[in-house]
UniProtKB/TrEMBL annotation:
Organism ancestry: Bacteria, Bacillati, Actinomycetota, Actinomycetes, Mycobacteriales
NCBIfam families in alphabetical order: PRK06076.1-2, PRK06076.1-4
Biological process according to GO: aerobic respiration
Gene that encodes the chain: nuoH
Biased composition (Low complexity): 417-442
Protein name as catalogued: NADH-quinone oxidoreductase subunit H
Record HAMAP family: NDH1_NuoH
Annotated region described as Disordered, given as residue ranges: 379-449
Membrane topology according to the record: Multi-pass membrane protein
Catalytic activity annotation: a quinone + NADH + 5 H(+)(in) = a quinol + NAD(+) + 4 H(+)(out)
UniProt similarity note: Belongs to the complex I subunit 1 family.
Species name: Dietzia lutea
Principal location: membrane
Oligomer status and interactors: NDH-1 is composed of 14 different subunits. Subunits NuoA, H, J, K, L, M, N constitute the membrane sector of the complex.
Length: 449
């Protein structure tokens, strides 16, 4: 059992100071993240970015916050007003609550009181984080439902399915950490990485978590609940002024939370990286705060990099990847970790090299399987297929796809082919190509078509 005797003995003023420090840290991080995201995206896309408000534009985020606060808060006529007003609050409060168990550093002295740089800790601290962050999705779902509009509703439903599918893979990636640390306490997990970080022992778990945390926070390329190309703005389409700003605040705070959790679980938390860890006292006292913030911003930069690099996934691809790839791989890796620990022994000196080798083998197997599936899919594609793999000829045994069967026209999937008889549809065009006429001049009907 992890020793948590250092927690719960602080005077009230120190607890209040910790709460205020965590709140200020998150708010300042959000302001800095918005500014740096715009500057980094501009740098990657050969633009300038914010450069007017303050030196180098560093006050642009603050100016945007003041501007959005002064905008008129519109409430559409058809909304469910109590839930509509409550949804942003439900989204933003759990985002701050999750940081209560994140360790910023070791025990330090504050005005003569020895206290850990952490608000509190629990024996099930990681489960607390999962529970609190799961509550936040209710704000998105209720915002979409209470808006009384189609597009916000679709965004809310997408967010529900997204959180369910990717939170399963995220929770499974934690199991290996629990097995090696022997605890679910965040401070205990950091202490268990004093010799070797879990990113080296549990590389597949780390990769699965990084993918899942991007999907969990609705960030590109997994920002399907607010896909501007399809849903205008998604679940927050009908929101304005401060209520809209609260959703943006919740998104960036959640980014900070999952980044801090990644640093805590896999990168040693506040412990100094090599070669700085070789310096005596490099991660003691307040210096540990520097390493923790640096690791958090490494993952924040990853979020920005992905947004600037990758296009948005199609929704069925996104869900298939979560259920058919991440979850099975997570389950298989958990079984492999448990088996290796039993066979090699939890106290054996061979456990660390065995886990490193197993991680490399797992990554290699995934790459090989992906390449084999890609080659098979390429061979299965007909020679006369179009740019999306849709053959010009109707596949044998395949039922024709009617895009208006549900009452609303939808595009076909890559393996489907629309088959309608009206002029201008793919089937009609295909029939015209299959049965050419001998007339050299087109008829009047053909010209109109």
């Amino acid at each position: 059992m992890t020793d948590l005797s250092a927690f719960g003995a602080d005077p009230w003023w120190l607890v209040l100071a910790k709460v205020l420090a965590v709140f200020v840290f998150l708010v300042v991080t959000v302001l800095a993240a918005i500014y740096l995201e715009r500057k980094i995206l501009a740098w990657m896309q050969m633009r300038i970015g914010p450069n007017r408000v303050g030196p180098g534009g560093i006050l642009q985020s603050l100016a945007d916050g003041v501007k959005i606060a002064l905008k008129e808060g519109l409430i559409p006529a058809g909304v469910d007003k109590p839930i509509y007003l409550l949804a942003p609050v439900i989204a933003v409060i759990p985002a701050f609550m999750a940081f209560a168990v994140i360790p910023f550093g070791p025990v330090v002295s504050v005005f003569g009181h020895s206290t850990p740089l952490q608000l509190t800790d629990l024996h099930v601290g990681i489960l607390y984080v999962l529970a609190v962050t799961s509550i936040g999705v209710y704000g998105i779902v209720l915002a979409g439902w209470s808006s009384g509009s189609t597009y916000p509703l679709l965004g809310g439903l997408r967010s529900t399915a997204q959180v369910i599918s990717y939170e399963i893979a995220m929770a499974l990636s934690f199991v290996g950490v629990f097995l090696f640390a022997g605890t679910m306490s965040t401070s205990g997990i950091v202490a268990a990485q004093s010799q070797v970080w879990f990113v080296f022992l549990l590389a597949p778990s780390f990769v699965i978590y990084v993918i899942s945390m991007v999907g969990e926070t609705n960030r590109a390329p997994f920002d399907l609940p607010e896909a501007e190309g399809e849903l205008v703005g998604g679940f927050h389409t009908e929101y304005s002024s401060l209520r809209f700003a609260m959703f943006m605040l919740a998104e960036y705070v959640n980014m900070t939370t999952v980044s801090a959790l990644a640093a805590t679980l896999f990168l040693g938390g506040w412990q100094a990286p090599l070669p700085f860890s070789l310096i005596p006292g490099a991660d003691s006292g307040w210096w540990a705060l520097l390493w923790f913030v640096a690791k958090v911003w490494t993952f924040m930069f990853l979020f920005i990099w992905l947004r600037a690099t990758l296009p948005r996934l199609r929704y069925d691809q996104f869900m298939a990847f979560g259920w058919k790839v991440l979850i099975p791989v997570s389950l298989a890796w958990v079984m492999a970790v448990a088996t290796i620990r039993v066979v090699v022994g939890p106290e054996s000196g061979l456990l660390t090299p065995a886990m490193v080798i197993a991680g490399l083998v797992a990554v290699a197997v995934i790459v090989v399987v992906h390449r084999i599936r890609t080659r098979r899919a390429g061979r299965a594609t007909p020679a006369n297929a179009g740019p999306h793999g849709v053959s010009g000829a109707k596949p044998s045994g395949a039922a024709p796809f009617d895009p208006t069967a549900g009452g609303f026209p939808v595009p076909p999937l890559p393996h489907q082919r629309a088959a309608l008889g009206r002029a201008g549809t793919p089937a009609a065009l295909g029939a015209a190509d299959a049965e050419p006429t001998t007339d050299t001049a087109p008829s009047q009907e053909a010209r109109h078509a």
